Amino acid sequence: MSLRVYNTMTGRKEDFEPLNPGKVGMYVCGVTVYDYCHIGHARANVVFDIIYRYLQFVGFDVNYVRNYTDVDDKIINRANERGISPDDLAGEFIQAFDEDMQRLGLAEPTIQPKATHHIEHIISLVQRLIDRGIAYESQGDVYFSVENFPSYLKLSKRNMDDMRSGARITPGEHKRNPMDFALWKAVKPGEPSWESPWGPGRPGWHIECSAMAMEYLGESFDIHGGGKDLVFPHHENEIAQSEGATGKPFVKYWLHNGFVNVNQEKMSKSLGNFFTIRDILKSYDPEVLRFFILTAHYRSPIDFSDHNLQDSRLGLSRFYEGLQAASEVLAACPPSDVTSDAGIALENAFREAMDDDFNTAAAIGQLFDAVRTINRLIAEKGFRKNRDKVAEVGALHQALLKLGGVLGLFISEPAAWLKQMNLAMLAATGYSETDIEDFIQQRQEARKNKDFARADEIRDELAAKGIQLLDGAQGTTWKAR
RNA sequence: GGCCCCGUCGCCAAGUGGUAAGGCAGAGGUCUGCAAAACCUCCAUCACCAGUUCGAAUCUGGUCGGGGCCUCCA
């Protein structure tokens, strides 16, 4: 079975066949750097990070370009509010973005270009459009003429007449048609600007992506991604600009991720349910957030809520506990040359899920099955002396780490992750680690004296606070949940 | 108004023609001083109605409910 992807352009899943065998060019719209990233950005970037990793995993040589849009109305406005230069503002939030993505454990794209470093390309692209009669200059602005690009709206499947009735020309614009959009904006006082054949000005919103994508990936490339909300107008306009200039198909597969809702409502500033990544990471482990995002298919909406995040925390803990148990027991077993194909089977199931339009939810389901198998085998009598079973656990353990790695999961040392998670949960109970150790000691004494009432009392008190005691062969350990 | 999406077990969530993955929670069991953890077993016919089909959660039409885009937005 080979990879199939859902293409927004055709509205269906298609076999993935890159333009150049073995190579993939992929462009994902990055952020406009004027504020901290929210969890919607987290989702989009995690999703395309997984797509990037998986394409590499199955053997493609991927050229992944993700841009920074560092010139834009919002940046200028925000910079003016704060009395700093747009450049400084952009720099600040580029750094913040990089920090956030690093904390989320994202792989770095091949190239992360900035719009302001591509003004030359932008200008020449605009000029090409003017030369072909698809764009026109008007009082220092340059607009794209949608009437001269017949396939306009083919991605968003809208109707020009319906759109036109709702479109308006805002004061200060010099459009011939309300649907036309700016490629180049004449400079206004207090704005950054660059020299151009049409006078000093700056790029419109959409053109920078066309210019950067074509610069690094060529006039036609394989995958273009972004959030669903970018379908119109951003991606529609990118197609218009790019295909208008080149006469060639711009992108073969358009991929769009779904939204993040918060407690069933659309996340928005006006509703006050807007969470930045850094806010969330104060309360949640980054890997829990990543796990949460990946337990739903990338095109479905996901509902961000405390309850759902807790669910994800428990789910991820299950993996780490299983991995920890496996590595402990494997370390205690003598090496043997017995092999198992359980890892191969798991990988095949994983790939089958991922090949179906990057179905991470189904893929994780397969990984859960492997955890259960590991736990079952380890619990069986005489496990350590059974080389076949030890080999199977070894194979599953390795495969789990390998495949988890494709999803950016299980990257921590299990013992360390579990410990850190425990301590974080413990902090909420008011107890310290030594408090718990003391309780365990007291209970141990009581148990030794067969004072089970006292022993149970201690255990129940802790349990009420969310601390579970686990009596094992090597003594009592604890866990918070 | 136009375009698009969704409605699967208490919760989360896969599944686009062949008889419902997985996680959390719950019930019973094994283990345990008793528990917990782990393991085993159990737990849904897919919003509703009508069609197409040998066969539909999956296709078609309709009803109800929810959401998104159409203005900046991942």
The total number of structural domains is 3
- Multimeric state: single chain
Mean pLDDT: 93
The parts where pLDDT drops under 50 for at least 5 residues are: none
- Name of the CATH first level of the largest domain: Alpha Beta
Counting DSSP H or I runs of 4 or more residues, the number of helices is 16
Molecular shape = elongated
Strand content: 15-25%
Radius of gyration: 27 Å
The strand count comes to: 15
What would you say the CATH architecture of the largest domain is? 3-Layer(aba) Sandwich
Write the CATH fold name of the largest domain: Rossmann fold
What does this structure look like?
This protein is an alpha/beta fold and 481 residues long. The chain folds into three domains: 4-271, 3-Layer(aba) Sandwich (Rossmann fold); 307-414, Anticodon-binding domain of a subclass of class I aminoacyl-tRNA synthetases (Four Helix Bundle (Hemerythrin (Met), subunit A)), CATH 1.20.120; 430-480, no CATH class. It has 16 helices and 15 strands. The strands form five sheets. The protein has a four-stranded parallel β-sheet with strand order 4-3-9-10, with helices on both faces. Strand 11 and strand 12 (265-266) form a beta hairpin. Helix 6 (207-217) crosses helix 7 (231-246).
In short:
This protein is an alpha/beta fold and 481 residues long. It is 49% helix and 16% strand. The protein has helices at 39-57, 73-82, 86-103, 119-131, 160-166, 207-217, 231-246, 277-283, 286-294, 306-332, 342-355, 360-379, 387-406, 414-427, 433-448, 452-464, and strands at 4-7, 12-15, 23-32, 61-69, 135-138, 141-144, 181-186, 201-203, 221-227, 251-257, 260-262, 265-266, 302-304, 467-472, 475-480.
